[in-house]
Task: structure prediction
Amino acid sequence: MSAVFLYPLGLCETKMSSPNINERIWKIATTLTPARLLARPAEKEAVVRASSQATAARYGFIDLLRGFALVMMIETHIVNAYLPVALRKGSSFFFWLSFVNGLVAPGFLFAAGFSLVLQANSQWENWVRFRLPFWRQMRRLGFICLVAYYSHLQGFKLSRYLTNWGDGPMWNRTLQIDVLQCIVISLLVVHLLISLLRNKKWLPWGAGILAGCVALATPIIWSYDFRGHVPLSIALALNPHGISLFPVFPWICFVLAGSCAACIFLRRAEAGKIAQFMQGITCLGVLMIAAGLLLRNAPFTLPGYVNFYTTSPLYLIIRVGCILVICSLLYGLEINAHWVPKPIQLAGQESLLVYGVHLWVIFALLRGKHLGVVLGLQAGYLGCFLLSAAIAVLMLLLAKCWHALKRNHPAFTKFAQRVTVLIMMAVFLLK
Result:
């Protein structure tokens, strides 16, 4: 929804008649405002412009956003799994911790939409004309979907489904929509927009308008029970029904917002105006946060299922605003402070591996029937944070090793991925 307002702003470009005047103005501005992280010399801008000429250029701040989201996701899952209910009720600390943790999935989804458009910038004609790169992209999304649903298989064996075909709860758990399924569906929608619009300049408008429509329609969609009227997988994708954690309504809005922001970012990058873009989204993000908070107690409400924290477009606006500010901060740290923690960046680049393995470590290993009895199933804040840190370090090391293996032995890693898929299928079919 935020993207609707982002593009028309234009993020005004200011031209100075003298480099000296320009430098003095920047110096004064950066000593008075937090924009210090965003202002930078012309030679740094030139380096970024040069890097953007590469095919499917990577921008470090997006990898950092995804990487930090993954690290925080580990802490979120640990807290949700181990923290006793007694420590959650009436705790202001838990309220703010939940708010911060509530930015994890939106940031992850925003980064997915942003990255797709960065990739589309170099593959646009191939994707629009359905050439081989388009089908390779569909294969990647298919693999992510396979991993997503495989992680929800009950018992990881086909025989259980054949003998319990009518077990409704089993199918609910299997077909629930988690963040990976939501990403796949959302990216397919962005691909559909690309195919329909066919012109790069229309994509931010299409993504922004669609995000706004989804945000406004979410309370209505959540008020209906689609089960029994459409296939269960579609019903669980539309609204949670008390089962899905990340239904398309409203979570696709974050992917669409990321796609819209990326379109405008690329235009500014080509014009050498990235710093102005970052300053613009910082201001926009702050305005969105303020607007969402100020309008929270407005007398008007949307029809349907109304809940500020789940279906309200206002809370969605607040979270998108927070993500825009975080993106600007990460970019400023990357460019000015030269602070780019490589392990976090690599985790962002190997997000699928880190996501899948950390879930297996937490829920299948640590909380499994063997270690769960020994280690326990509850922990206080200190225990949760220490366990989160330990798993995060382990996942960062895993991402580093896998990234190095892919770089040095690409043929072997591709072979290993294919073998892994075959093993996954064999285990399910034969177990």
Remarks:
- The chain has 20 helices and no strands.
- The chain has one domain: 2-7+66-430.
- The chain has a mean pLDDT of 86.
